[in-house]
Please model this.
Amino acid sequence: MDRITEQERFWRGGFGDGYTDRNRGPARIASNAAFFSKVLDRTQAVRSVLELGSNVGLNLTALGQLLPEAAFAAVEINEKAACELKRNLPQVELHVASVLEFQPGRAWDLVFTKGVLIHINPEKLPAVYELMHRSSSRYILVAEYYNPQPTEVEYRGHSGKLFKRDFAGEMLETFCDLSLVDYGFIYHRDPNFPQDDMTWFLMEKG
Model:
């Protein structure tokens, strides 16, 4: 692999450990279940799922409630988060690696990121897009911070760690066999199931 990026080093280390400690709890799982129920309503026959950047598995826990017969896999760069995921969700096929290192041996019905592409070095995004496309047999979901033009945002006092852009639009322009199935926005003031102002895009391979 190429030299590790500063973003990978950031999430492998102490900041990634702190993120793991902050982001947990049943309320988050409930919000995730409400979100994924909307997404899955626009899909058919999802029997396998890969999450890139899973942290402790809050998304996969919610998806497991909605798809109890599905097989799940995860890629997570932070060892502390990966250990907790393995302890709580031993049935998940876990790969402790950066998404820039991960080499899939097969494809999944649904491949997704949620709050992960925003933290990837922008120069490495084409490689991640290619990975998601190659790993998916049918659906790709991106749930990220959207902006029409690429822009950087300071993240908890750190620069060079959070980037907003039209991730789905770039994928649709790159891969001619992708089509947009649905999209939506989740507001942090939602009275029942808030999320962190994320815009989501569900795409399908033709």
Remarks:
- The chain has a mean pLDDT of 94.
- The first strand starts at residue 48 and ends at 52.
- The helical segments are 6-12, 14-22, 26-40, 58-66, 79-88, 125-135, 167-174.
